[in-house]
Design goal:
heterodimer, A: 164 residues, D-Maltodextrin-Binding Protein, domain 2, 6-stranded mixed beta sheet, 5 helices, 6 strands, 43% helix, B: 349 residues, mainly beta, Porin, 16-stranded antiparallel barrel
Chain lengths: 164, 349
Amino acid sequence: MSRHVRTGVEALLIIVLISSGPATAPASAQSAEAVAIVVHPATEVEDLTFAELKRIFRGERQFWENGRRVTLLIRAPVAVERELVLDRIYDMDEDSFREFWIGKMFRAEVAAGPKLVYSAGTAQDLVRVIPGAITFVSVADVNSETKVVRIDGLLPSDPGYPLR
Amino acid sequence: MRRPLPWALTWVLCLAPALVAQDPTAGPTVQAFLFGDALYTVDDGDGPEGFKLGQIVAHGNATLSERVLFFGEMSITARSTGYGLGMERAILRYEANDALKVSVGRYHTPISYWNTAFHHGLWLQGSVARPEAVKFGSRFIPVHFVGAMAEGQLPNSPVFYQVGVGNGRSTNIAGAGDFGDVNSERAVILSASLRPASLFGFRVGGGLYFDKVPSADEVDPDERIASGYLVWDRGSLDLITEYIAVRHDRDGSSATSSNAYYVHAGLRLPGELRDVTPYARYESMDIDATDAVFGSVIPDYEAIVVGIRYNFDALATLKIEYRNVTADGGEGQSALFFQTSFAIPMFGG
């Protein structure tokens, strides 16, 4: 897919997600039991340690092994998946999370903050078209085209999976 | 206490516009913030009283391509003669990977944790003002640094480093060498920090800075600055302690050493009071009276700071602070500060 086409697809998706956005999020969030970590299909990673996942989501690791920059996609505040990720990965509430990212940008520690997405469908659509992208979705919302990454060798359905 | 709708709105304002350029290879993107503050002071000494508009600070991060970034920070500052426009930071950086990021520009010198953690936006920092040793306009350390820097994280380790070479202090030692080095000796900065992944929020580190200080005398004194810090910035506790020693030596046999340190602690209250953070700081500067650079221009300094920060809105805060300052062993002077500060997310695409 060419760059221009890809950007156009993203813009279209954004219009759709903004128009339908937050109102649809709680329904999928309520069914969430475990949260799956998903990446762009070309990202050469099958398994991450939980510690490494934290470093990626906290903006401490900004590049994949293949040299691609990590692009973080984060669900909007209304999503239950977001609450779980803030609790388990960031160990922060919304106040601290906001201040954390503004601080990182202000300190020139990151090029940009995480990108906001409003639904599981949009998160998966975008993660498939943005090289280096990583996001999280409720395991109930994962579709067949999404590349799910193991955490500490575990899939979301496995006992002991850390994002449950 | 927080209302869900404004929170969601905050995030939409912050981040949604950047969505149209999520692919970092798709072209330049910009994310920007505006910071500002206003201050009311009651002072029992000779300090200025009344209302003061603090700094209005514009900060922007531009992603020019996947590996080339620009960070800029400009300020408008109220002065006795009017308002001054300043270029605080301007950094063009090439990021090869996590281990190597090379940049050129104007920085806040990484010889002090506070100097590189809070910059000019007062909304982020936990008190009304910086510690005296690292305040803007300080002569104790070179707050700004014009030069080039390499930085990154050592592979498979919790060690972060910064190495830089630059112009060093200007003729006015509180200023940076913005228009070239005023002597033939470049300043060199080395700093490192340890940030264990298992102790998120904990950071211990320090730095070394070497230069020759511009002087009206025949020989420019050697300057060597050594610093160390320990920080815990997680959960409800915010703890920062830092020590900085500055050594000057004019002729190789008459070295003097001056030092400064501070301990700052804030504790965010639990539950319904979670928007309230009481804080306290003790700071001290001990200047060698025979120091060839500082002796006649920087007094010994001691301060006790007690305050309370109240986040009355998602991106706005009120700080009320009492400060008692003793300079050169004289009588202590007290002041009370009321400061409101804010951050406004702006954006581009």
